[in-house]
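Blinded run. Sample ID left blank on purpose so nobody reads anything into the name before looking at the predicted structure. Input follows.
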Amino acid sequence: MAIISIKNIATIDLTSIAEERSISHRGRNALHPDVYAKYLDKGYHKVPKSQEEATIAGTKVWNGPNASFPIITSENTADGVIIHATIMPTRYLVGQAMRDLVNENTYSNEQIQEMSPNMANVSLILPVKHKGQYFILGQLKGKALGEGQIHAAITAGNVAAEYLSKPNPLVTALRAECTEELGLELDTLSPGSFTCMIDESETGQVNFAAVSKIHKLETVLHSYDSATRTTLTQDANPEVMGLARLPIEGLVLIPAESSAGRLKNVTCYKPTSDGLQIMIEDRHVRPYTQAVAGYLTNTSDREAFMRKVLSNVA
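Blinded prediction complete.
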C-alpha cells in the first residue's frame, strides 16, 4: 500500500546529519526497537558493509549506507507546503528488517506507519506531450521488487549516503538516477521540483516525487534508446525493462485479484539491440502507481500538478 500523505509541496528544507542512524540513537532520531531487534535477529549487522568487504568475504551481498528520514514535518504556506526534514546515513538492510516485520502479518497499518524507518527514496514523474495530449512516461520495473509492473515514475531510487554531503542531496540523487537509467541530464531539477510525498511504510520507505518540465516524447525515447543499447550487452536484466505511456487524464486502474491493480492497452517501449519496440500490453501496477492514479483522478490535485509542471523552467 502507498498513499500520498503530503501534497502540493512548495520546497524541501533538508538538514543532513553525518552520523549514522543506529540503535544508539534516542529520541526523534531513534529507530523503532522492533525494527532494530529484527535487524539483529536476522544477522544483518554482520553482513559486509561495502562491495570491497563482500568481495573479500566471497559474497555478492553487502549492507551499504543509504539514508533515512528520522524527522519529517510540514508547514502550510500561501505558496504550498514547506517540508522540514532531517536525513541521516542508514544501512540498507534496516529497510529490509522493516519488510521482514511486515511479512509477519502481525502489525496494523497504524503500527507499520509508526515503525517505518522512512528510508529515503526519490522519484521523477515525467510529463510528455504527444499528438496534443499530455502523458506520464513511467517505467516497467526490471530486476527488483515488482518486476514487470508499471511504476508511474520514469526513474526512482534510494538516496545513497554519499549524497548527504552535497548542497541538495535529494536533487543530486535524482539527477544521478536520471543519467544512469535514462541518459537524461535534468539540470532544471531543484528542491522546488518536488510535488508530493508518498508514504510506502510497508516497504519501510518514503518517496519524494519530483516533476520535470514537459518533454517531447520522441526526445525522451531517443535518450532512453541510446542509454540502453550499451547496457543491453552488459546486463540481461536491467532495473528498467521498458517505458510505459500513461494518460494524465483518464488514468483509471482496472481492479485485479491481486493487491495491485492493472492497466489495459498500455503503450510500452521496450529496448532491443535494433531500437525500441512498441507494444500494447495489459500490466499490473506498483502501489506507487495506484497512489498517483488516485491523485490525478482528483480534479483540483491534477490542476495543482499541472501548475507545478508548467512552472518548471526549460
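Unblinding after everyone has recorded impressions. Residues 260 and 285 are 6 Å apart (CA to CA).
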